[in-house]
Amino acid sequence: MTSIERWNKIVDIFNRNKNSREQNVQIAWENIFSELFDYSRLDGDIDSQRPVKMGVSTKYPDIILRHNNEDLFVVELKRPVLHEGRDQLFSYLAQLKINIGVLICDNMYVYDFDYSGKENKHSVVEINFLNDNPLGIHFLDLFNKASFDKEKIKSFIAEYSEKKDAVKLIQDNITPELLRKLVQKHFETDFDAETVELAVSDYEFKCLPKELHDGTPVQQNYPSLQSISTQNYNNSLAPEVVLMIGDRAVSPREFKDRLLIKKIAKRFWYYKDKTAPEQDDWDASKFRSDSNLLGNIHSTKYRHWKTSGLIKLVCVIDE
User: Which long-range contacts (CB under 8 A, 24 or more apart) does 87-95 make?
Assistant: First the structure.
């Protein structure tokens, strides 16, 4: 079986077990690491639910992968609630003094964690469970028992993080003003600046990121109205409020829990007569556990939706 075939098999198993009980998910991933990564149950390479002393309590990491009696990396299995699973994984890595951890929930997150520090310093690679995903195929090769090399994995994570940061920096600087300047510069090689300015002044420049790239969601400056749930709007129906963490729509409970931690969110106000949403920041520094989330939202300019033409409000907290 090729690496591509093995990865696609993992994607299939992941999708079939999305709504399964925790025990079934645990067994599925133990089988994956045994049959597709070549870790031996007989040799004790797959250490499941090992008791780990955490202060006065005892916790049980889902899976610890080992080789020659050495702990290699920790795998934590969670439903799609990334921030809770990540912190729990970090606590295991710190206690076991292991750098490499894998969180499997909505996607797969591969961490290089600095357990010696106090600031949870880490780098991460996010791998979507999509067929033929190059990152997933590379993960298979790096984490296979025979080829496992911690330094190669750390380099892979570092390079991915640096590239991701560079891409974000470039995207943040792709603006309508930049496009205007580039167009002016192009034509000023053949025409005088005044003529170019007169020509360009009749045009409005816009930068709108594509919703999809090769079938994989990409980070946007604002959520596309087509990428989130929709409904029919009229003057008697209040606009829908969509709550998101990263690119996931979540419940008010989950959103509130994250807001209490992050203390800030982005708001995107979609109006029927505008092609792009208005964006502002939600300063939630005074938001408390007993605060009413939807009450807070409805007390903003949202309450003027009938006269403003508001059709949807999307609130987003970064992962």
Answer: 87/120, 88/59, 89/113, 90/115, 90/120, 90/122, 91/54, 91/59, 92/52, 92/59, 92/61, 95/52, 95/53, 95/54
Half-sphere exposure of 102 (CA within 13 A, CB side): 20
Q: Is the pTM of this model over 0.70?
A: no
d(CA 11, CA 130): 6
295 three-state secondary structure: helix
Element housing 240 (H / E): strand 240-245
Question: What is d(CA 76, CA 70) in angstroms, rounded to the nearest whole number?
Answer: 18
Residue 90 DSSP code: H
Cα–Cα distance measured from residue 219 to residue 266, given in angstroms and rounded to the nearest whole number? 14
Contact present, 123 and 158 (Cβ < 8 Å): yes
CA 164: distance to chain centroid?
12
Q: Where does 106-229 show beta strands of DSSP type E?
A: 108-113, 122-127, 212-213, 216-217
Residue type, 75: V
- What are the tens digits of pLDDT across the range 152-196? 999 999 999 888 888 888 888 888 889 999 999 999 999 999 999
Whole-angstrom CA distances from 200 to 44, 186, 188, 294 are 69, 11, 11, 45
